[in-house]
Design a protein that fits this description.
- This protein is α/β, with parallel strands linked by helices.
- Helices cover about 30% and strands about 25% of the residues.
- The protein contains eleven helices and twelve strands.
- An eight-stranded mixed beta sheet has the order 6-7-8-3-9-10-12-11, with helices on both faces.
- A hairpin with a 2-residue loop joins strand 4 and strand 5.
- Helix 4 (about 110-120) crosses helix 5 and helix 5 crosses helix 7 (about 155-170).
């Protein structure tokens, strides 16, 4: 077997605040192979985005990051700021969650993409403009020669997201990290963005880390899924295995919360919510983080932290009482 392109081991992130420490990520581990799409799934505040930002040195100075993140033989958490700047944008690119706030409103989209090309590839202005138009065409933006002169506010949400993807792909990165790339987009535009990412993976061989709370998006594009809860990995499996045989009660709860047409006469079924709230992350938990919301909780789950156990060839779960049915 070939070595993974990215191997994250025991990644932990702590923020120091005036009210104490917040343990946002707790010993997260995963691998990413060349050309693979890995989905990081979980509700808001579970540590998905923080874990990805920490790899590229994009967290504030109040953050303390420990662990190891080996990329192509280099530990991203140990390199100098100068080395990390060379990697960031050129070999690992990030598509941020909200393109309207990520793009500079006073520069044209062409100017912003060209800046990336000139910074990392040392292209001339003319070469950068020509490459920018090629990138806009690559992400299926019509009339690219005209759009290159437009400002972010002149584009739709879907167009702005495509510009962000074009900028991320400018230097042919080996890894693309996409943070909620379809949030706030309507269903038709979502489908177009996912189809674009799938096509780019197939054509360019780019590995993708897809951060999302939407399991429908994961089912559509991911090869493998890591489910996170309260900063920890709750479950990991190939995408088909996860949907066919979910093991963690939290994963089952997420699946049951997906809207679907009902079988009843009125065509509607009440969504099943996960009761309770995410625990405070001010201190490392000494028990299962999901215990207070879990229908299977007992004295064991309330007093011990479950280890990740293998329940299949590529299926891991951190649960003392795995298994169960979900409403398909």
């Amino acid at each position: 077997m070939t070595a993974p392109l990215l191997e994250v081991t025991d990644l932990s992130v702590r923020f120091d605040t005036d009210d104490g420490s917040v343990h946002a990520v707790d010993r997260l581990s995963y691998t990413l192979a060349l050309g693979e799409v890995l989905g990081l799934v979980g509700e808001s505040g579970c540590g998905k985005s923080v874990s990805a930002l920490s790899l590229l040195g994009l967290l504030p100075q109040t953050a303390t990051v420990t662990g190891k993140a080996s990329f192509d033989g280099t530990d991203l958490l140990e390199v100098s700021a100068r080395q990390l700047r060379r990697i960031r944008g050129r070999e690992i690119s990030f598509v941020f969650q909200e393109p309207m706030t990520s793009l500079n409103p006073v520069f044209t989209v062409g100017k912003q993409i060209s800046e990336v090309l000139r910074r990392h590839l040392d292209l001339s202005s003319r070469q950068a403009r020509r490459r920018t138009i090629e990138l806009l065409k690559l992400v299926r933006i019509p009339a690219a020669e005209r759009r290159v002169e437009e400002y972010p506010h002149q584009l739709s949400g879907g167009m702005r997201q495509r510009v962000m993807i074009a900028m991320a792909l400018a230097c042919d990165p080996k890894i693309l990290i996409a943070d909620e790339p379809t949030t706030a987009l309507d269903v038709t535009i979502q489908a177009g963005i996912l189809d674009l990412m799938r096509d780019l993976r197939e054509r360019l061989g780019t590995a993708i880390v897809l951060i999302t709370h939407n399991l429908g998006v994961v089912a559509d594009i991911a090869d493998r899924v890591v489910v996170m809860y309260a900063g920890r990995k709750a479950e990991e499996a190939p995408v088909r295995e996860l949907f066919a045989n979910p093991q963690h009660p939290y994963t089952i709860g997420l699946l049951n919360a997906i809207p679907r047409l009902g079988e009843e006469g009125n065509g509607r079924v009440r969504l099943q919510e996960i009761p309770g709230r995410v625990p405070s992350l001010s201190e490392p938990l000494d028990h299962c983080a999901f215990a207070d919301r879990c229908p299977r909780a007992d004295d064991l789950t309330r007093s011990h932290v479950p280890d990740l156990e293998r329940v299949g060839p590529e299926h891991l779960v951190a649960c003392f009482h795995p298994g169960g049915e979900w409403r398909r």
